[in-house]
Design goal:
Chain lengths: 175, 345
């Protein structure tokens, strides 16, 4: 795929994730506690070989867009940058026995359920813990915040899993 | 030099990570301060347009609820319009007041000063026609917001009706976005009310959108008083439930009654005096505190906030300039900008 094609594709993904988040998913809440961070899918499902600098910048851009929509200053951006920074570490941790193939992507059909769920839950949990405790600015209501973190992890992971099952190709594409 | 470049390349990820984190945390921490360009929040023109469109779409799905809210508001206003028959009946005895020198004033014997002035300046017009005509200026239309009457037609201090575009409930610091901005006369620092009571305070405004600190914000404190006995306190949101707040600084020796109304005291010059905030739901005396811990049920249901009003508190500029003049070294000679054309009530 050409550079321009990649660029257009990623821009479209950015717009789709941000739009879905602001228009639809951000309005929902689970049990009055949890919130869905669907936009994390943009960072989580980037190609495996994305340079770290690019990942960080994309995470920051996405986070800032959310901050502007939800008036949180830089809270989403801080947590999303942390997520983008931790992603290569988690990927390295989960390397299959014979390394990643060139065409490997973050895809539940290709990488298997076990690999995908560990990857998703680990990164989403780290992000949510960072997000909710940063938002609190202190450890005043630890139980309530932990409940929020737990319910949000459930919500976000389920939503991202549904996105994977619906929109990601079952067969490997030749690219 | 080559080593330096190699070093920078090797640690580019870490360094960019630290840089971006510092930038975002800086933005996050300074978010609650007032003096901030309206770009990095939802009053930004692009974000505002997106949120306005979302509201437009979402409104179709809750037209029923919106209509019911407006009907309820209408019913309340109609009740104001048609008071019971005996409410305007005058007492047998004359109401007696005192003027600034302590002399008694018999209001019924003396004409209203503004009408007397008008009659004096225009003697040609018959004396008989003047006092009969209801003076539209002296009796401005009022709107009942949270139990306080506010004038609607007042060129100097407009009451701006606004639609809530975005509203968060579950964050630690919640904000609202409104579809009015500086073009409609909204400025940072103004109060925001709804028909049911206090909502918040404007944080920043762009040309057509404004961001508002919700009452549900960890740094928001509203000067309040208990309506029954006038005890002053301060309303804060503890950050758990959007229908409840705390009333602080009520001394332990005071008696409290469940169901008491708590209204704004008008001390912080943001809200007019007497606007409803909530009712006392429960109170406990904690052993290590000098004050009651009072739980309020908020009058405003933040989960279905639709139409709000931005208010200008009248004496605000005057009061602020007075309070700053106390510390100013050499006050400039102040002359009244404009003779008041009508008595203020």
């Amino acid at each position: 795929m050409s550079v321009l094609g990649v660029l257009v594709r990623q821009l479209l993904r950015f717009g789709l994730y941000a739009g879905m988040q602001v228009f639809i998913v951000g309005q929902l809440s689970l049990f009055g506690l949890g919130w869905c961070f669907l936009y994390l899918g943009f960072v989580l499902f980037l190609p495996l070989g994305t340079p770290i600098v690019l990942q960080l910048l994309l995470g920051f851009g996405m986070g800032l867009a959310m901050d502007i929509s939800y008036d949180t200053g830089g809270l989403h951006a801080a947590a999303a940058v942390l997520l983008a920074y931790l992603r290569p570490w988690v990927l390295r941790l989960l390397t299959p026995r014979d390394g990643y193939d060139a065409q490997d992507t973050v895809n539940v059909h290709q990488m298997g359920w076990q690999w995908f769920m560990v990857y998703l839950l680990l990164l989403v949990s780290l992000h949510h813990v960072a997000y909710f405790f940063l938002e609190l600015g202190s450890f005043q209501h630890p139980l309530l915040t932990l409940a929020r973190v737990g319910v949000s992890i459930l919500f976000t992971s389920t939503a991202l899993l549904i996105v994977q099952l619906l929109f990601f190709p079952v067969r490997r594409t030749r690219s | 030099m080559r080593n330096l470049i190699a070093f920078l390349l090797r640690f580019q990820g870490v360094m960019l990570f630290v840089l971006l984190e510092v930038v975002s945390l800086f933005l996050f921490i300074t978010n609650s301060s007032y003096q901030r360009a309206a770009f990095f929040n939802s009053a930004n023109a692009y974000a505002g347009a997106v949120l306005a469109r979302r509201t437009q779409i979402a409104d179709y799905f809750r037209l029923d609820e919106l209509n019911r809210q407006l009907l309820a508001d209408n019913a309340k206003l109609r009740q104001q319009l048609y008071p019971p028959d005996f409410s305007r009946r005058e007492a047998d005895s004359l109401p007696v007041g005192r003027d600034t020198l302590g002399h008694l004033i018999y209001r019924h014997l003396r004409p209203d000063p503004s009408q007397a002035l008008a009659a004096a300046t225009a003697p040609g017009l018959g004396q008989n026609a003047k006092p009969k005509k209801p003076n539209a200026l002296a009796r401005p239309d009022t709107l009942l917001l949270g139990g306080a009457k506010l004038a609607t037609h007042d060129a100097d201090y407009p009451l701006v009706a606004a639609r809530v575009l975005n509203n968060s409930l579950r964050a630690v610091d919640n904000y609202l976005t409104l579809n009015v901005g500086t073009a409609d006369g909204v400025q940072p620092g103004l109060g925001v009310l709804s028909a049911a009571g206090v909502v918040g305070q404007v944080k920043s405004a762009s040309a057509h959108y404004a961001t508002v600190f919700s009452l549900l914000h960890s740094k928001m404190a509203i000067a309040a008083k208990i309506k029954r006995d006038g005890t002053f306190g301060s309303v804060k949101w503890p950050g758990e439930d959007y229908s409840h707040a705390l009333l602080d600084y009520i001394p332990r020796q005071n008696r409290l009654v469940r169901g008491d109304s708590v209204v704004t005291s008008g001390y912080n010059a943001v809200f007019p005096e007497g606007v409803f905030i909530g009712t006392v739901e429960s109170f406990v005396k904690e052993p290590d505190k000098n004050f009651w811990t009072v739980h309020l049920r908020l009058g405003v249901d933040f989960s279905r906030l639709t139409y709000v009003y931005v208010v200008h508190n009248r004496p605000r500029t005057e009061r602020d300039s007075l309070e700053t003049a106390l510390t100013a070294p050499e006050p400039a000679p102040v002359k009244p900008a404009k003779q008041p054309t009508r008595p203020t009530r």
